[in-house]
Each structure stands twice: as structure tokens, then as C-alpha cells.
Amino acid sequence: DTEVTQTPKHLVMGMTNKKSLKCEQHMGHRAMYWYKQKAKKPPELMFVYSYEKLSINESVPSRFSPECPNSSLLNLHLHALQPEDSALYLCASSHSGDRGRMDYGYTFGSGTRLTVV
Amino acid sequence: EDQVTQSPEALRLQEGESSSLNCSYTVSGLRGLFWYRQDPGKGPEFLFTLYSAGEEKEKERLKATLTKKESFLHITAPKPEDSATYLCAVQAGLLGQNFVFGPGTRLSVLP
Lengths: 117, 111
Known about the structure:
The complex is a heterodimer. Chain A is mostly beta strands. Chain A has strands at residues 4-7, 10-13, 18-25, 31-37, 44-50, 53-57, 64-70, 73-79, 87-94, 107-108, 112-116. Helices cover 0% and strands 55% of the residues of chain A. In chain A, strands 2, 4, 5, 6, 9, 10 and 11 form a 7-stranded mixed beta sheet that branches. A 4-stranded antiparallel beta sheet of chain A has the order 1-3-8-7, with no helix packed on it. In chain A, a hairpin with a 2-residue loop joins strand 5 and strand 6 (53-57). By secondary structure, chain B is an all-beta fold. The chains are: A mainly beta, B mainly beta. At the A-B interface, strand 5, strand 9 and strand 10 of A face strand 4, strand 5 and strand 9 of B.
């Protein structure tokens, strides 16, 4: 299995809702990432998990809460979002560290298109 | 601060018209430079990793090269299905913890 699977593909939520985005990989990668991408912009890093521990939080508002239950799963819990949070949310995974294992870079999922109304 | 720029911002080519995309970077401790292709509404798709100046990699109509300050993605005889946004990213830092994307080049290949 060489894929990162994200669900749901599309999500519409109100500003008072609570929802979760899910990401799964079975490539044995020990680093997993959440990115946010607005239209015609590059992906922006939100969170990095390395060996199931949060290692980087790029000053993301607390209405986004990541969780890594095990080495294959990554969740992003959403609460009280704003319309400006509407974007494509991408999950990615990679081997962590050593150069040889970065030969395939980061593997990205297809994303969740989130619309906040 | 690690920075990545790409040029041009957008490029329109006729089918078969070869060209090059540029990625310029300023980082401390480059661990790898990556090229990705992204189709609208999809996640980036990995193309190449380059590690050191002088390195080249090829895949079908694409060839990536790396110098100490920039990387080029050469597209030979492109086809309409090569239309996409091409993203360059660098991994840097002592532990490789910095992964920075450039803004991308939107390529359109017309039949």
C-alpha cells in the first residue's frame, strides 16, 4: 500500500459544529503532517507528528486540534471554525530523518475540501 | 530564514514546445530539494528528490537538475496532460525539520 487516505473528501460545516478529518497510511512512515492549502497558494504546514508525538505546531489556532492515536492514523479535530478556515486540508506522511529514505519525499493524500458556512 | 521562490508564476506552452521552470532557494543546511506536481483539488504528487549540486533525475518528459542556489525542471515536448501546478520544496535544518514549499508554477499546455 503506497497511499495516504483522507476522509471525508468534502465537508461543509457551520461555525458552531464539531467535526474531524481523518488520515490513514500503511507504509510504515513514522512522520505525519497536516497542511492547509488555499486556492492558488502552496501548502502551509500546520502540524508535524514524529513517532506519534507532536513535534511541530506552526502557531495554529486552538480551534484546530490534532491527534495521532497510532503510527498509522492522524486526526484533525475542528471546532468553532471561521469562514476563512475554508480550504483544502492535506495529510502527508514520510520516513523521518535519514537521507536515503527521503527518496520518495512526502506522500500526500488527496485532501479534504472544507467549507465553513 | 529559509526561502523558496519559483518562476515563472504561470506558463502557457504549445504542445511540443519545450521549456524550463525555475526554483531558487536560500536555506541553511539543505537536506533535499523536491519537485511535486499538483492537479486542481488533489494532493501534490511526488516527482523527484535531489540532494546535491550537479545531480540530475529524469522521468518521461521531465528532467530535474540542481545547483547550489537553484533547481530547474525541464519539460521536453510537453503534452496537454502535463498541465498542472509544479511545486518545488526544500527540506533543511539540522534535523530536517524545515520543509518549505515554493509558490508554484501553473503550467498550461495547449493542443
